[in-house]
């Protein structure tokens, strides 16, 4: 990942600041940076969202395609993730540099989102055992400035909220040959219930305390971080420890509690914002990538 | 300004694709009218004084038709009277999508300068572009786009003419659209309303197409045929054995019957009988179709009814047919029966057809819809002769010429259609007296008992001493005063021929008879004046005998040389069941050709010299078709009719393609020529044989049709003729009568559509048919009148009616003797 060089003196300064709940940019330990979200930014996807968190920029597109359900769960659809670490984000991603990170990120995303507690996978089923919707979630990193997981998870939630799947119905002739028919009306769409879609909150252990939404400099001071996915009710659905350093059980507990608190507080304004944006309808002036 | 159009499409693989297209809007699109003075980069199309006299619109106006008006009333729009029409892009796109011919016609109209048709690209105009709204169907959106564009025009023209009189009129037949447009403040009329209002052009009303959605809707939309299955279901049906795939062959006598030959191996059923129009289900001769077999209890036997396709509307006939089927059931020769459920591959070719008149009477205008098209797949009067592509150069009597894969010289109406060019066929390949000609000879050394001592094949140069017609030769033989060399050798040949023939007959060769007819033509009008049956002379038989011998010798030679790929001709023995009718007729026993020949020779009845001929005609009908085949593909070589173990065609290379192949084989066999791969490939040879057999059959049909046609022409000029004839067959509803004088057959029907039919009792064992009091047997002598029924110009046919025996209500009175007035007409 994009690394910054931080001198010992800077580290001490950051750590002391965190201890006093005052970070470099003036935030408290559980504060996020300024966040901007816009949905429906890519017209040829079924749902899309762009988020900028500080200088971290992530674009998520969701495409729905008809596929075959997995044999184990014939009555469910599924999600596929692909994270593209564009060389635009940081020069280190050039060539195959971003591949490892991309795979790591997408593996985490499978764990967090591709289960029926998070997304109502049953609603993606068209015809049990025969056809289902497969949601291809493509994540494009446009700029890296720390805290990728949180930014990606929020963008995915927003993109899933924005996703409109064309309605289909199955017609069957006398011989039992099924055929999928599309609705003639492009406005006749199915929406996903994103209520239970979790967000990821990453907590970085700095000194004896932990911070939310760490910048790259703060990240350099941290030895280990904890990744917690939290639903809007504050339920933790997934926890993952990252980084080489160790965490003692007590601080894990503390961090989890903090994560739940922060995550719960994150969902409510996010949903409010998305609904507000949608209510503007077609007349909304799109900001896009140049704004 | 940029907009994007988004729509979802289903891909062929079954996926769903969201497609986004960029859509640019412009504000510089010209309205195309003369009144608009802005931007004159292109000449205006629409005239300023767009006047057409109308009760409804007395002011100059432009027309804007909606999509359905363009689609259905294109005849009106094409009329030169209709000018100054604005065709909206929305309309044009919809028309293009829905009907290619209509699109082409409207495009043509637009390109015509005098028509003043203007295409307005409203979809790209900033002020007339609209986006589809939620809950709005595509059609509604397009209707709205048309209204918006019409409104824009109305406002635009009003502005440009400062509230002048130029207006736009929207034409639509959609009631909902009309109402909405009226609310929107547009001048809108239904097409019919508008056209009827035009003063001084009543003829346009006739061109108005009927509106199916009007009150006078045609409710009688009975399905004429069961729908064909989709291909996917046919394929799965064939795979799991529910359906059978085969080639459909229409029955030549009965248009309500056909057979499907199943060409799948390992299938125990290889023929499926189809009866009734519903079951034939629009299959046309030689289509590859999928058939569904009926359960065994619905199997029927081929009906022995002769059916004429008489009435234009055959629904009643069908019902009759079903009744017939019930009767037929009692017979024990049931065949697998089924129905066509789908057509896998049409046998596309030119069809003759006719449009029957619509049965619906309309008060105004015509109904342009074609109600029914009957395909006359059996009764083609045009004869197409296909000459396939040329394949190899042939070396033929030293002349290099490209050959045809076509078959046979056709004798149609006494006109020869030659297989090879005339120079070859009537000059270079004909042996003329005292001219040297290249030939391929088969030379026998024979003793006086006509036993062959040695056979020799060679290429030769022949200088013929004399060329004689059959009649000339016959005269020389008969004339005892002539004793020159030629005559003597002719007599010698004739003697040998008689021995050969005797031996052949001994072995059981058949002399079968079929009435051959020749027309006497009027040399100028080419109308047939008289017809007569051909007669055979002794010399005919002499030549025939040596030709047969040559053919047999050559067959033996090429078979010895090329056991795998010799092209031979065989005549399979007919199955005993084929003789049923003959046995019934003559009560004779037949198991071999010899027995048949003997019994035919013995079967004579005193005072009835024609009886033998009749029997022979009948026997010919029992025979199988002789066919060409490749020796490597078959094991049975026997020629039944000639009683020869092996046979081929060698003697007529100028009129039969088979002979050319045999010539090549023989030439290779005697080291006179080199071979080529196709000649030695038994599969290619075999497919060639199939084609030859097929072409041969077609040529026969063509010849028969030609004879039938000219027989008709003949009788057309003759009026009504009384003639004697013999009953050849007895059918359930008719008797087939042979007229020896003309060598023609015809049917006398006893059931009539208009009259109550007489009491008919058919006994299939006899077979006899009892009509009222009289019983008809085979070979009974009857008298009939022959006339040409020209009541239906498409179905002219010879009609026969019974005179003798007199059956009240059935037979017709003897007509007055031939109308003399007709005769001079022929001579001029």
TrEMBL record, chain A:
GO terms, biological process: exonucleolytic trimming to generate mature 3'-end of 5.8S rRNA from tricistronic rRNA transcript (SSU-rRNA, 5.8S rRNA, LSU-rRNA); nuclear mRNA surveillance; nuclear polyadenylation-dependent rRNA catabolic process; rRNA catabolic process; TRAMP-dependent tRNA surveillance pathway; U1 snRNA 3'-end processing; U4 snRNA 3'-end processing; U5 snRNA 3'-end processing
Molecular function (Gene Ontology), one example: mRNA 3'-UTR AU-rich region binding
UniProt entry tagged with the keyword Zinc: no
Subunit structure: Component of the RNA exosome core complex (Exo-9), composed of EXOSC1, EXOSC2, EXOSC3, EXOSC4, EXOSC5, EXOSC6, EXOSC7, EXOSC8 and EXOSC9; within the complex interacts with EXOSC2 and EXOSC4. The catalytically inactive RNA exosome core complex (Exo-9) associates with the catalytic subunit EXOSC10/RRP6. Exo-9 may associate with DIS3 to form the nucleolar exosome complex, or DIS3L to form the cytoplasmic exosome complex. Exo-9 is formed by a hexameric base ring consisting of the heterodimers EXOSC4-EXOSC9, EXOSC5-EXOSC8 and EXOSC6-EXOSC7, and a cap ring consisting of EXOSC1, EXOSC2 and EXOSC3.
Protein's UniProt name: Exosome component 7
Protein localization: Cytoplasm; Nucleus, Nucleolus
Family: Belongs to the RNase PH family.
GO-annotated cellular components: cytoplasmic exosome (RNase complex); nuclear exosome (RNase complex); nucleolus
Gene field: LOC109111972
Keywords tagged on the record: Acetylation, Cytoplasm, Exosome, Nucleus, RNA-binding, rRNA processing
Lineage, opening ranks: Eukaryota, Metazoa, Chordata, Craniata, Vertebrata
Gene3D superfamilies to which the protein is assigned, alphabetical: GHMP Kinase, N-terminal domain
InterPro entries, per the entry: ExoRNase_PH_dom1, ExoRNase_PH_dom2, ExoRNase_PH_dom2_sf, Exosome_comp_Rrp42_subfam, PNPase/RNase_PH_dom_sf, Ribosomal_Su5_D2-typ_SF
Pfam families with a match to the protein in the record: RNase_PH (PF01138), RNase_PH_C (PF03725)
Domain Exoribonuclease phosphorolytic: 32-166, 196-261
Keyword ATP-binding: no
From TrEMBL, chain B:
Alphabetically ordered keywords of this record: Exosome, Nucleus, rRNA processing
Listed Pfam families: PIN_4, RNB, Rrp44_CSD1, Rrp44_S1
Cell location: Nucleus
Predominant localisation class: nucleus
GO biological processes: nuclear mRNA surveillance of mRNA 3'-end processing; rRNA catabolic process; rRNA processing
Sequence segments annotated as region (Disordered): 305-326
CDD domains hit by this protein: PIN_Rrp44-like
Segments of skewed composition (Acidic residues): 311-322
Any one GO molecular function term: RNA binding
InterPro entries: NA-bd_OB-fold, PIN-like_dom_sf, PIN_dom, RNase_II/R, RNase_II/R_CS, RNR_Ribonuclease, Rrp44_CSD1, RRP44_S1
Domain RNB: 377-672
PROSITE patterns: RIBONUCLEASE_II (PS01175)
A GO cellular-component term linked to this record: cytoplasmic exosome (RNase complex)
Domain (PIN) ranges: 61-179
Protein family membership: Belongs to the RNR ribonuclease family.
Identification of the protein by name: DIS3 exosome endoribonuclease and 3'-5' exoribonuclease
